[in-house]
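Anyone up for a design puzzle?
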């Protein structure tokens, strides 16, 4: 009888120990989640590098919030203009607003890496490939300054120096997968595109 009764405290103690260990595990997981949120918030506030992925279908917009009060935007191009999308960074995603990429990513005429058209991937096309590097200014003040300088037709060397000084944000969009088709007229058009973006924003 004595041995039978002596087993009860042991089982109860074992249950308490398991419960205590479980509480420690849950508390540790909670602490790690809180730490992750803190580190993400700190990184977001301080700038630095951000990486994200997305998918767009024909005619669809895409937006992603960046550090520093900026947004990454993909705007669809009409099929009449070659379809596809153009890359923008702005204070808000509005196709009629100020595009910080357009002002800072040369060339200013001709095929530009910020424009993603389906024909770029036709056989023999002379155009950027699946990796698109771009620069952007960080605020409306620098956007206006670059716009004024571009319109004044400054010396090319000085203009390139200005682009380097003010276009301090940098990004790379890599197309990871896509599907296209040919229209009845034989023009290449996108069905959809998957992509990965790396954005670097300097600390202010």
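Challenge accepted. My sequence:
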């Amino acid at each position: 009888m004595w041995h039978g009764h002596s087993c009860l405290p042991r089982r109860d103690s074992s249950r308490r120990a398991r419960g205590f260990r479980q509480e420690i595990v849950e508390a540790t997981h909670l602490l790690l989640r809180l730490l992750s949120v803190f580190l993400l918030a700190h990184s977001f506030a301080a700038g630095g590098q951000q990486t994200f992925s997305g998918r767009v279908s024909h005619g669809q917009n895409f937006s992603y919030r960046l550090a520093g009060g900026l947004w990454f935007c993909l705007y669809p191009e009409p099929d009449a203009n070659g379809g596809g999308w153009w890359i923008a960074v702005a204070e808000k995603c509005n196709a009629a607003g100020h595009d910080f990429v357009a002002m800072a990513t040369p060339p200013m005429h001709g095929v530009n890496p910020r424009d993603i058209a389906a024909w770029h991937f036709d056989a023999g096309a002379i155009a950027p490939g699946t990796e698109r590097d771009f620069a952007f200014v960080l605020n409306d003040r620098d956007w206006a300054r670059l716009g004024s300088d571009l319109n004044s037709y400054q010396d090319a060397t000085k203009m390139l120096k200005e682009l380097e000084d003010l276009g301090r944000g940098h990004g790379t969009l890599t197309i990871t997968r896509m599907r296209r088709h040919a229209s009845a007229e034989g023009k290449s058009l996108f069905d959809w595109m998957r992509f990965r973006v790396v954005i670097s924003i300097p600390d202010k």
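A detail worth pointing out: Helices lie at 2-46, 140-151, 156-166.
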